Amino acid sequence: MAMKFGTKAIHAGVEPDPTTGAIMTPIYQTTTYVQDRPGVHKGYEYSRTHNPTRDALQGSLAALENGKYGLCFSSGMAAIDTLIKVLQPGDEVVSVNDLYGGTYRIFKTVFEKYGIKFNFVDLTDVSNLDAALTEKTKLIWVETPTNPLLQIIDIKAVAERAKKAGVLVAVDNTFATPYFQTPLDLGADIVMHSMTKYLCGHSDVVMGCLIVKDEKLAETLYTMQNSCGAVPGPQDCFLALRGIKTLHLRMQRHGENGEQVARFLKVHPRVDKVYWPGFTDHKNHRVAESQMTGFGGMMSFTLKSGKLEDAITVLESTKIFACAESLGGVESLSGHPATMTHASIPKEQREEIGITDTLIRLSVGVEDIEDLVADLGSALGRL
Ligand SMILES: *Cc1c(COP(=O)(O)O)cnc(C)c1O
Question: Which CATH class name applies to 5-244?
Answer without folding.
Answer: alpha beta
